[in-house]
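Design request, tokens follow.
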């Protein structure tokens, strides 16, 4: 669902252009347009909606009834305060039925051929995707009638159309729907049952991501009783980059290039996100900043002159990508492979530690200090993550080796720094009942034994103010 509201100022004088504020899920953006279709075109492209533009309309509530917005209405509504429009999808027939006796058989045949070509193209696309998945060793989820995929008998089965939704914690939900429902509507119903909000999870069916703005009928094999997989959207949150040159630096470029399993969700200062193409499979993304840097860490953005404490980026895990981060070299001592879409943190992870929350914060502060985070950085790290760290009585955590992290998110700085320290933590809450079981005993005993400086690979020069140092920290909650 997309809401549009007029911004202060209404339409531009003499041009007929209307300035509107657009809201889609949790995102907001402003667009200017001189027609309904121009606004729909811009909003759909900006938010990446994979829906034919001809099937999108704007609706307005007038006297308690929703009606479709025309260009004439748009200009009048934009002059009103707090006007909210809704983007909705309709199925537009290729051929409108003419009066009786005047049916154009030639046109009908043309539509039939067009539909057949569309079905053939979709079939070829599915074959291409299947071959790509086989190439990387992907396996479809077990079929519904597999013993491991059998829903609990106590859950009532709806009489009409419904789908089963299976979470990663093996919880089952029977979600009623119609073929005209959007996938986003299904996610809202799931959220009403106590799951994550729609923007924090994805639905997968037969290895394919179900797009929010598409409807159930867009997926012909998604039938009554099929199993849809619920996958949380994992986010690498608040990686921030500090530059500490030994003397004022007039110009430096900082670039972050993500493997395809990650996609930028936010960057600051704002910068263009570029797609990377490697000629094989899908590429990743790259963002680049130009700044001046001072010895105290203050950055000045080129162009705007804005002063900054650090550069910021966040990324969502892209479970729909078939391209994995590159594996470590065969002769590398660091054999860890970090996949942002499926990070590993469990009781069997060799470096994982488990602490009660009452002991976590002093441990975390001391560890971050050893990893070369200065006082302000440690403060920011802990206070930013505190709400998520305090969800459960215990917290399991580990820090990634820099080499493994760099393969998923490459950091490039010019001129080249003397020392680069990248600190990225994986963590998750653990209930008291689970933590006290035998499975986590090794992680509890490991708390005072892990040498995080060695695990992360921090160089001795990370504390030397006479050297050009770059520091980054971030984390990901493993849901």
């Amino acid at each position: 669902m997309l809401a549009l509201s007029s911004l202060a100022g209404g339409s531009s004088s003499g041009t007929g252009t209307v300035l509107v504020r657009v809201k889609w899920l949790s995102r907001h953006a402003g667009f200017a347009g001189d027609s309904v279709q121009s606004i729909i075109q811009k909003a759909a492209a900006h938010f990446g909606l994979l829906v034919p533009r001809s099937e999108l309309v704007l609706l307005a509530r007038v006297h308690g009834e929703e009606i479709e917005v025309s260009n004439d209405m748009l200009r009048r509504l934009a002059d009103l305060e707090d006007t909210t429009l809704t983007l909705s999808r309709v199925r537009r027939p290729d051929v409108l039925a003419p009066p009786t006796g005047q049916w154009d058989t030639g046109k009908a045949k043309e539509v039939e051929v067009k539909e057949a070509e569309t079905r053939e193209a979709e079939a070829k696309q599915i074959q291409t995707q299947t071959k790509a998945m086989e190439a990387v060793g992907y396996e479809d989820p077990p079929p519904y009638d597999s013993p491991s995929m059998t829903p609990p008998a106590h859950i009532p089965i709806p009489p009409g159309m419904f789908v089963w939704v299976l979470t990663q914690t093996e919880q089952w939900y029977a979600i009623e729907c119609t073929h005209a429902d959007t996938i986003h509507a299904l996610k809202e119903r799931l959220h009403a049952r106590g799951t994550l909000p729609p923007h924090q999870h994805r639905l997968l069916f037969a290895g394919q991501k179900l797009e929010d703005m598409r409807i159930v009928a867009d997926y012909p094999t998604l039938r009554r009783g099929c199993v849809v997989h619920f996958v949380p959207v994992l986010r690498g949150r608040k990686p921030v980059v500090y530059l500490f040159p030994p003397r004022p630096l007039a110009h430096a470029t900082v670039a972050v290039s993500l493997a395809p399993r990650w996609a930028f969700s936010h960057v600051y200062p704002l910068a263009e996100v570029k797609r990377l193409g490697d000629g094989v499979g899908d590429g990743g993304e790259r963002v680049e900043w130009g700044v001046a840097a001072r010895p105290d860490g203050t950055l000045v953005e080129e162009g705007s002159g804005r002063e900054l404490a650090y550069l910021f980026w966040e990324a969502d895990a892209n479970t729909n990508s078939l391209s994995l981060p590159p594996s470590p070299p065969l002769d590398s001592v660091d054999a860890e492979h970090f996949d942002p879409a499926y990070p590993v943190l469990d009781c069997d992870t060799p470096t994982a530690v488990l602490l009660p929350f009452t002991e976590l914060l002093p441990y975390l502060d001391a560890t971050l200090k050893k990893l070369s985070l200065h006082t302000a950085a440690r403060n920011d790290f802990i206070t930013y993550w505190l709400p998520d760290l305090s969800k459960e009585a215990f917290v399991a955590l580990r820090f990634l080796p820099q080499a493994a992290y760099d393969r998923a998110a490459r950091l490039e700085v010019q001129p080249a720094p003397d020392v680069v320290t990248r600190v990225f933590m994986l963590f998750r809450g653990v209930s008291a009942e689970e933590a006290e079981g035998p499975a986590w005993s090794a992680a509890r005993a490991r708390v005072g034994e892990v040498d995080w400086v060695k695990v992360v690979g921090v160089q001795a020069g990370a504390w030397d103010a006479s050297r050009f140092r770059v520091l980054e920290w971030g984390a990901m909650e493993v849901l």
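Comment from the thread starter after seeing the answer: thanks! Residues 278 and 284 are 9 Å apart (CA to CA).
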